[in-house]
Amino acid sequence: MPIEVCCIGGFSKTEGNSVAIKVDDEVILLDMGLSMEDYIRYTEDREDVSSKTYAQLLRVNAVPNYNFIKEWHSKVKAIVPSHGHLDHVGAIPFAASLFPTAPVISTPYSIEILKSILWDEHITLPNKLITLNLNSSIKLSDKITIEFVNVTHSIPHTAIVVLHTPYGKVMYANDYKFDRQPVIGKKPNFERLKELGDEGIKLLIVNCLYAHEHKKTPSESVAKQMLKDVMLGVQSEKKAMVVTTFSSHIARLKSIIEMGKKLDRKIVFLGRSLMKYVQAAERINLVNFSKDVKILRHRDQIDKMLKKIEKEGRDKYLIVCTGHQGEPRAVLSRISRGELDFKFKEGDIVIFSCQVIPVEINIDNREKLEKSLSAMNVRIFRDVHVSGHGALEDHRDLLELVRPEHIIPIHAENAKAQMLADFAAGLGYKNTHVMQDGKKISF
């Protein structure tokens, strides 16, 4: 068979996404992600990357296992992450050098994040970094052209990746949702998806993380309204207000800034990963938060700012900080433990604009943090959030647009993959393949 697929990571468990597509004697790697639960256990860091070796991380199952394609290593022509989340791009600093002649090709924000990680950790890769804009293509060889189709997610510049080959098109729709009212960026390119469907899709590799939910994932504009209801709708005079969310969720941060300005509070961003992701967005002119926000990452700077807030009045500031999953080293956890120069008082407001990512370490960390906050009689607002992942009705829309011959679910354990397979079968798609990490299949 001319197209061979190796399901390297993201098929037996939720994270560590990576797929190898072999077209004759050429191989493309789609995503090179960390397995975040294993990575956190090893490094205690949720939103950032710290210097480790590939061998170290492989031993704890935190990176994709490229021994599955040992005989393909010399054939890898490109590494193509679909977007900048660490479970899709985070293994590149450790694993890309296994394929030294393969360029890393991704969207502008994704490449900027990768550059930040490499610079911060003093990592040098032999691989070229190539930026490809959304709704653009690059001819990689006589047999393979890579196309990025714009789609929405919880981080800017997310692509549905399409590999054009002589034997048919492979579409990689991992993290996505169909948001027709995005807070940042354009709506999904439905027109191009329909055109590709009309041309014919041999294989669709598609996210199944929310295959258990019979719904359409709400727009990010809904999360903005949820934030408005809480931030502007509660009594906050003489009270501290602290918001925490994913540092890479630039659209959510934009909404938080908007509400902070309406509250007439000075806005401060505190934490290393917040600075990293915001500055990456500013370098490519995606946003200009610095005109409205003071962004601090170092412990002494953060301490100095928190002392200033205590002195000037806690209701004069909006604190946006790291720690949404209860990470022990993040700013919010350190405040709660009394390690920084700021003390919560009764009635202060803490808003978690996120959901707890349902793995054991996050559940435990958040429970400890919330217990600590509750002991200080802090008002806690949980789940002020909408997901960036499509659910079953989003998948229905995608299937109807692109009408693939074959489907492979990714980004969840086999139980959810089977749910998507059953759903697709009900729509008439009989060729859904539930795969395991390391397994290969040909088309």
The beta-strand count equals 19
The average pLDDT value, as a whole number, equals 95
Shape: globular
Fourth-tier CATH superfamily name of the largest domain: Ribonuclease Z/Hydroxyacylglutathione hydrolase-like
What is the CATH class name of the largest domain? Alpha Beta
Pick out the low-confidence regions.
none
**Number of self-contained structural domains:** 2
CATH fold-level name of the largest domain: Metallo-beta-lactamase, Chain A
Instruction: Report the sheet with the most strands, covering strand number, pairing sense and barrel closure.
Output: 6 strands, mixed
Structural class: alpha/beta
Helix content: 25-40%
| N-C termini distance | 6 Å
Given the structure, what is the number of helices?
A: 14
As a percent range, the share of strand residues is 15-25%
The CATH architecture of the largest domain comes to: 4-Layer Sandwich
Strand order of the largest sheet: 7-8-9-10-11-18
Compute the gyration radius: what is it?
22 Å
